[in-house]
Request: fold
Amino acid sequence: MRTTLRSFSLGLLTTAIVLGIIYTQSSGSTEKTDLTIEDASTFLENEGFHVVTKTEWTDLNEQLNSNQQEENNTQQQEKQTESNEEKQATEDQEQTEEKPEQQQTEEKQQEEKKEAQPVEIEIASGMTTYDVADLLIDEKVIKDKMEFITYLEDNDYAKYIQIGTFQLKSGMSLYEIAEVLTN
Reply:
C-alpha cells in the first residue's frame, strides 16, 4: 500500500513541476496592450454598430426633443380646431332647436303617425332569424339586427318563430315583437 501511495505522490509532484514550468514560460510571452479609441471604433463598426461622439449624441437628442415639441404643438392646434368645430356644431344645433313650437309639435305628430302605422310581415318556411331580422329592418320595425337576434336567442324565442303573416308596428319593443312572432 505504501508503494502505491508513494507512486501517486510522485506523480502529483511531477505534474505540479511541469505545470509550473509551462506557466512561467507562457506568462512572459503574452503582453497586454491598451485598447485605443480608433481600435474600439473600428471593431464596433465592423460588428454593425454606429459610433457617434458625445457632441453628435447631444445634437441628436436636442433635435429629437424639438421634433417632439413641434408634434405636440400641432396636436394641440388640431384639438383646438376640433373643439372650435364642435362649438360651432352645437351652436348650429341650438339654432335649429329654436324652431317655433308649432312646427315642433307638427313634426312630432308626423313621426308618431309613421310609428303608429301597422306593418304586415310575412314569414315563410325556411327563413332564419337573420332573414326575419333583415325583413324587420327593411320595414323599419327594428333598428339593430344583431340586438334583435341576440334577444331572440337569449330568451329562447328563436326556436319558436311561426310561419305566417303578422301585424307589427315600428314602435314595438323587442319583447312585443318576439311575442307576436312566436304565438
About this structure: The chain has seven helices and two strands.
